[in-house]
Amino acid sequence: MEEITLIVPTMAYEQQIKEYRNEFLANKDSMDGTSFLREYEHVPEWLAFIEQNSHEETVTEGLVQATELLAVRSSDDKLIGMIDIRHSLNDYLLKFGGHIGYSVRRSEWNQGYAKEMLRLALDVCRTIDLKQVLVTCNKTNIASAKVILFNGGKQENETLDESDGEIVQRYWITL
Predict the structure, then answer these.
(1) What is the predicted pLDDT for the residue at 163?
(2) Cα distances (angstroms) measured from residue 138 to each of 38, 146, 159
(3) What distance in Å separates the CA atoms of residue 94 and residue 11, rounded to the nearest whole number?
(4) Which candidate in 71, 101, 124, 153 could, as Cys together with 148 as Cys, close a disulfide (CB 3.0–4.6 Å)?
(5) Are the C-beta atoms of 9 and 70 separated by less than 8 Å?
(6) Do you know which SUPFAM superfamilies this protein is assigned to (predicted)?
């Protein structure tokens, strides 16, 4: 795995964000940790949405304050993944979504990027004074469970998400 950094999304990455979105849509992959990127065809609108939700006083009703970050490979400045760090939990996040959601583009799977993204995100969590973070994954997503366990996750339980019929595994990581 090559070195990656987590950076705040900007218009400088507009084309890569579009390509990232299109790759996920073409593969019918889940776009976890992208702050609803699936819903935004136009990057400036998505950037405005994530900026709004990065501040507690302007967060969209029903959501929580969050920090969206791009995982960019240092050697070629390529967008590898996205990660969303939620500063608190609402009822849905406590049951199913957790503090951190992330995704890696399929063309970069199985190279260790998700492990490193989660490790770097935990450092960000420390800066916003989180002492424990909840990270979840579908029971069928064995790769994600390994990422969480590698980063110190301790499974608390499994719960059924009735909205999609998936069993969700809930892991806590102490910081």
Answers:
(1) 87
(2) 19, 12, 10
(3) 32
(4) 153
(5) yes
(6) Acyl-CoA N-acyltransferases (Nat) (SSF55729)
* 83 neighbors 121 (Cβ within 8 angstroms): yes
Where are the domains positioned within the chain? 4-174
Percentage of the chain modeled with pLDDT above 90 = 97
**Which tokens go with 69?**
């970050």
Residue 30, both tokens: 């889940």
Rounded to two decimals, the pTM is 0.95
Distance between CA atoms of 171 and 34, rounded to whole angstroms? 20
Instruction: Kindly state the average pLDDT of the residues 55-83.
Output: 97
What is the three-state SS of the chain? CCCEEEECCCHHHHHHHHHHHHHHHHHCCCCCCCCCHHHCCCHHHHHHHHHHCCCHHHCCCCCCCEEEEEEEECCCCEEEEEEEEECCCCHHHHHHHECEEEEECHHHCCCCHHHHHHHHHHHHHHHCCCCEEEEEEECCCHHHHHHHHHCCCEEEEEEEECCCCEEEEEEEEEC
Residue whose structure tokens are 């999304």: 9
CA distances from 171 to 49, 94, 137 (A): 28, 11, 9
**pLDDT tens digits, 108-162:** 999 999 999 999 999 999 999 999 999 999 999 999 999 999 999 999 999 999 8
Please give the pLDDT value at position 82.
Answer: 98
